[in-house]
UniProtKB/TrEMBL annotation:
Compartment annotation: Endomembrane system; Golgi apparatus
Name used for this protein in its record: Protein FAM198B
Keyword Acetylation assigned: no
Family statement: Belongs to the GASK family.
Membrane spanning stretches: 38-59
One GO term describing the cellular component: Golgi apparatus
Xref: PANTHER family: GOLGI-ASSOCIATED KINASE 1B, GOLGI-ASSOCIATED KINASE 1B-RELATED
Pfam families: FAM198
Domain of life per record: Eukaryota
Lineage, opening ranks: Eukaryota, Metazoa, Chordata, Craniata, Vertebrata
UniProtKB keywords: Golgi apparatus, Membrane, Transmembrane, Transmembrane helix
Keyword Transmembrane helix carried by entry: yes
Amino acid sequence: MYVIRLGEVKHDFIIWSCSCFLRISKCFRRYPPSKRNWIIAGACFIYLFYVVSQVVYVLPTDRLSGKYKYRGARGIFASRFDDTLQETTGSRVAPNANVSYSTTPKYNVVYITLKSKRRKPAIIRGTIRPKLRKKTVSKNRRSQSSFINEVDIGTEAEEKPRHTYQSALSRKSSRYVYNALKNINPNNSDTESHYSAIRIYSERAPPWFSKGDIEALRFLADSKISGIKEVSFTGRRNVFLFESMTDASANSPSKYNQMDDNAVCQGRCALIKRPLDTSEVFAFHLDRILGLNRSIPAACRRFTFFEDDQPSPVVLWDPTLAPADNEAQSSIRVTWGSYQHSLKDKCWHRGAVPTAESGCSSIHHYEWSRLALFDFLLQVYNRLDRNCCGFKPRKEDTCVKLGRHQQCSDPDSIELVHIIHRKHDPRRLVLIDNKGYFDRDEDNLNFKLLEGIKELPEHAVSVLRSHRLREKLLQSLFLDEVYWESQGGRLGIEKLIDVIEKRAKVLLTYINAHGIKIVPMSM
C-alpha cells in the first residue's frame, strides 16, 4: 500500500508542475512582444549579476593566497644559529619542490613530500655534466672563461694532460683575473644583501647539520668578496681562493680564521673549483646525513664577474690541515700493503698504542671504515684505488690516459692519495676532493674499496636501512638553491639519489654476504 501511495504522489506532483508551467506560459504569451523582451532581459541581468557576485567573492581569496603563497622569505623563519648573521628575506621557492609552510615555530616547516615509486627507475648512462658548446670568442673572453672551464682546481690537477691546462695557469690568465678583481668593492656583495642562497624556512635546520655547518654554508653562498688570490697547493699546483674581510667572518670565533701576517688567507677564504666538480656539494650533504662528519663544508655559487656565469662549487678553506707536499698529496705516506696491515692490526683500537714494528700510521682503525663506506657510495676511486684496479675504467678516465691501470700487478706498492688529517688531530681523517661518479653501472662497481673492511659504522648503516635516505637528501640538498637549480631541480636531484640508493642496496647485500660487523664508532 505504501508503494502505491508513493507512486500516486509522484504522479500528482508531475501533473501539478505541468499545469503551473502552462499557466505561466499562457500569461507570458498575453503580454506584447516588447514587454516579453524586457522580462527576458531582466531575468538575464539578474542571472549575470549573481554570477559576477560569486566571482568577485572568490577572487580576493585567490589573490591573497597568491600574494603570500611564496612569502617563504629566508628571514621569516631564518636560522638563529649565529647572532652575527643577518636574517634575509624575499626568497623564491623552487618550482619543483613541494613545500608547505606553518606559522608554528616549534615545528620544522619545510616538508618535501616523496612521490610514488616510478615504474622505470632512472638509469644514468653518461656522466652528468653540462654540455660544452664550441664558441668562437675573442682572446680576452677566452682567457676569462678559461679560469673556470680549464683550470683544474682540487682533484687530480697534476694528472690531467699537459696540453689541456698549459694555458690555464699562465701569467696572462692570472693577470686577467687580478685585473678583473681590482675594482671589487668590499662593501658590495657578490649577491644581494637581502637574498640568501641557503634556504632555511624554519627555526631549526636539519638535525644532521651543526651550528658551524650552517654558518659555513651561509659564508660560502652569501659572503661579500673582497678579493681573489692565487696560492700554491701541495707544492705542485696553484689554486684560487676568494677572500672575505666582512665583519661577520672576521669577528666570528671560528677555527678557520687566522689573521696573522703569514697566513694564506687574511680573514676567511673558500676554494673555487670547476663547475664539473659539483658532486663535492652532494658528497658534503651525504657525509653529514650518514653521520661521518669528515668532509669540509661545500656549497654552490655563481660569480658575476665571470662571463660564463656557471655555478661553481666552493669549499671552505681550512688552514688547520696538515701539510701535504708529497706526490700522493697526503699528510702521511700509506701504501696499499701497509693499509691492509693496519686493518688487520686494528691500529689505535680501544686506546692501544701500536709498537714501532707494527707499521701502523697515526690514523685510527675506525677512520678507514668510514672512508671505505663513503667512497663506495660515491665511487670515489682516486683515494684508495688510484690505478683503477678494482673496476673497468673508461678511456676518458685519468688512470687510462696516464697508463696507470696497467700497473696493478704489484698492488702492495701502490700509494694511497689524499690521506689528510688536521695538525691538532692526527687520528682522524679529513675527506677532501670528494669527486663522486654517478655514471658507474651496478655491474661495474669498485668493490676493491671495501677490501679488508670487517667493520662499518652503525649510524651510517642504520640510515641506509631506514629507507629514509631519499627523504633526507631531498631536504638537505634543498637548502642549497644554486646547486638544486644547477642539477635541474627536483627531477635532476631524484636521478642522483636513485644511483645512491641502488649502491646502498648493493652495499647492504655485501654486508650480509661477507658477515661485516656493524659497530658504534663514537670517535
